[in-house]
Amino acid sequence: VELQERLDRPGTLMLDRLRQAQDEDGRIDAEDLARAAGEFGWPVAAVTGAASYYADFAEGRRGRRHVRVCEGTSCFVSTQGQHIAHLERALGVRLGECAADGSVSLQGVRCLGYCYDSPAVLDGEQPGSGEQLGGLFGDPRAAERRTRPGWAEPLKLRAARIPYESVVDRPVVLAGLVGDEGPWEVWPGVVASGSPDQVLAEVTASGLRGRGGAGFPVGKKWSAAAQEAAPRYVVANGDEGDPGSFCDRLLMESDPHRILEGLALAAFAVGARHGLILVRSEYPTAAERLRAAVAAARENGHLGKRIHGSDFDFDVEIVRGAGSYVAGEETALLHAVAGLRADVRSRPPYPTSHGYLGQPTAVNNVETLSAVPWIVRHGGAAYARLGHPDESGTKLVCLSQRFRRPGVYEVEYGVPLRHLVEDLGGGLREPHTLRAVQVGGPLGGFLTPDQLDLPLLSRPLAQAGVALGHGSLVAVDSAMPAAAILLHAWAFGAAESCGACTPCRVGARRGVELAERVGEPGQAEAALAAHEPLLEVLTVASLCAFGRGVSCAVRSLLRVYSDELRRTGE
Ligand code: SF4
């Protein structure tokens, strides 16, 4: 392959190329791998590495009809996992398998981002969920129902005014992150006559921290990248893998221009000419809408060369993932957008100096970027006044299906969790009663109902043994058996561990074995006692936050369900 031809096919297209090969006859074979390697000028081993890593490619043959079913926590809680067996029976195929005649295949996914309407499926790229699931599969009128107006439409984001005078004694105003201000209102003026230092100063003054879970100060990250030599890149993380979280999907689908404007402002501050957004493959509509938004932004002169008469060039590429939870970790994400295995690597060096293609890169979650236009327009100080002195601004919080009023709510940091659960969520829908709340997804942790006076703030939650993560709240009702939720937590760890380090790869599988033993007659005490040394190894020796997070979540679960777990198998 000639060098120019190779450069014309960047790795960002590799996952799409593999998807295309898979679409042709349902599988990726050695010939496909060799052909893709030849086209891209890559070693076959590198292409094979990617094809064997991502769940979408590695699960074997795909049927002409491919159904993905959610195994995430909200869906699991909504049926105690029974929806999987229901689908297997209805489709006549086992989870992870393809029918012998190639007509249909069924893939388990954590998660599909419809936690407000569990249990969820994607039939091809068409969402189906909740009540539809019961009669959808095997029913000849299914296609008609799938196209029914209003069926499975994305939930509207609901901005809510949160009175929490107990935390801050002043009127509450929302940041308007998902509200009244149109997108691209800030960008033309900034790029034409503003300065990168001004944008950086406002974002730094705002105290904005990453919303994806790590909570790193955004101004500090941008400043570090901006100080490195060009070329620099900005990358938006749309790989919302946390079961329980769906706010990024709704943002990408309902407000893609706001994300693009935030990314453009990030690029301006950092001095990047190229941006990438990784959208997980489970969110096909989000990818489609972002692509359409990029095209419209180019037409309107917001992206491209010499934008709005300035000397600033910037364009954005949308990359679709292929099924990997760990790809949401920023070093893994940078491998994924380059078409490689989503392997985590140790830091330092940080992506701000060694990121995409080894160049300085600022990676931010899409929710984080969505706050930037408001900050630049109203000033960092105005944003810093929202929320709590320890964590400024607002957060999108996701409430799961078991709540009476599930959905996404924009709230200020510091609001008590009880307000989210009881006032906004309305408590649990009848006839369920609340046993626990999972905060922050599978790497977050569980709280009991009497812990809900804790505020929505990272530090107090960490002191209570849970991580705020991406801000999801999954309600677990009293009917859920303790041993089943423990096994579910470990099974997530075992399924989604990237395998790069032994403590997490082996430890999560060992955890599954221990959780299974908890359910055996007379084994609970010993199996629970064996958890402690295992959790310690995951906590201290895991290479990335995934292993530590799984351990943190399981520890909290053992605390919350201590009595029930000890009585299991009696
Ligand atoms: Fe991979 Fe788990 Fe190790 Fe992270 S902790 S690098 S996910 S094996």
SSE arrangement:
Blueprint: H1 3-7, H2 14-25, H3 30-40, H4 44-53, H5 55-58, E1 65-70, H6 73-79, H7 82-91, E2 104-109, E3 120-123, E4 126-129, H8 131-136, H9 142-146, E5 158-159, H10 187-193, H11 196-206, H12 218-226, E6 233-238, H13 247-254, H14 256-270, E7 274-279, H15 284-299, E8 315-320, H16 330-337, E9 361-365, H17 366-378, H18 380-385, E10 387-388, E11 391-392, E12 394-399, E13 407-412, H19 417-424, E14 434-439, E15 445-447, H20 458-463, E16 472-477, H21 482-496, H22 502-518, H23 524-529, H24 531-541, H25 545-560, H26 562-567
Parallel strand pairs: 1-2, 5-13, 6-7, 6-9, 7-8, 12-16
Antiparallel strand pairs: 1-3, 3-4, 10-11, 12-13, 14-15, 14-16
Bound molecules: iron/sulfur cluster (SF4).
Iron/sulfur cluster binds at residues 326, 344, 497-501, 504-505, 542-544, 546-547.
